[in-house]
Specification:
One of its GO terms (biological process) is mRNA splicing, via spliceosome. It comes from Dichanthelium oligosanthes. Pfam families: zf-met. This is Zinc finger matrin-type protein 2. By secondary structure, the chain is mainly alpha-helical. It has a domain of about 70 residues. It is built from six helices and four strands. A two-stranded parallel sheet has the order 1-4. A two-stranded antiparallel ribbon has the order 2-3. The longest helix has about 35 residues. The protein is elongated. The relative contact order is 0.05.
């Protein structure tokens, strides 16, 4: 039987592989040039305070009809217009807006600017000015407590009056208007209502 001679080594075309290597090196150089042409990496601002209030309670306790064809900003949950995503609950929404992806979309890095001594001193001065030392005294506290107690007593009195008014209305509704007195006397009672008033 005649077979294939497989005892010799495989021969490679060295010129072909050298040409492939040259082409690959040329592509890598071009990509490196394109990267340099883009300029330096983006310099992001340091992290800073939010200047708006996060609204977590506006839709608390409300129901909403959810349809699969609704746009993202009308779906159930919290919509982030910066990242264009919907987060299902408030805890995850807070994590999202404090997270790296959202902060990068806003153009901030996750690093905080280091405060200088002058900035800290200015901040303390601003807080001292904002806090008025004469805002709280014991007299003010006593007056506020008295006022609160009076308001509570007024609320209790109004509640009692409302209850009495409701009872009067119910009694007036249950009282029959046209009862024949002869018929009532013959049956042995004064009315069909209850005896409690």
């Amino acid at each position: 039987p005649v077979g294939v001679d497989n005892t010799s080594r495989r021969k490679f075309d060295k010129e072909e592989y050298l040409e492939r290597a040259r082409q690959r090196e040329q592509r890598e150089k071009e990509e490196a040039r394109k990267g340099k042409d883009r300029g330096p990496p983006v310099q992001r601002q340091p992290l800073k305070h939010r200047d708006y209030e996060v609204d977590l309670e506006s839709r608390l306790g409300k129901t909403q009809v959810v349809t699969p064809i609704a746009p993202l900003n009308q779906q159930a949950g919290y919509y982030c217009s910066v990242c264009e995503c919907v987060v299902k609950d408030s805890a995850n929404y807070l994590d999202h807006i404090n997270g790296k992806k959202h902060q990068r979309a806003l153009g901030m890095s996750m690093r905080v600017e280091r405060a200088s001594l002058e900035q800290v001193q200015k901040r303390f001065e601003a807080l001292k000015k904002r806090k008025d030392p004469s805002t709280f005294t014991e007299q003010d506290l006593d007056e506020r407590i008295m006022k609160q107690q009076q308001e509570e007593e007024e609320r209790k009195r109004q509640r009692k009056e409302k209850k009495k008014e409701k009872k009067r209305e119910q009694a007036a509704q249950h009282e029959p208007e046209d009862i024949d007195p002869d018929m009532a006397a013959m049956m042995g009672f004064g009315g069909f209502g209850s005896s409690k008033k």
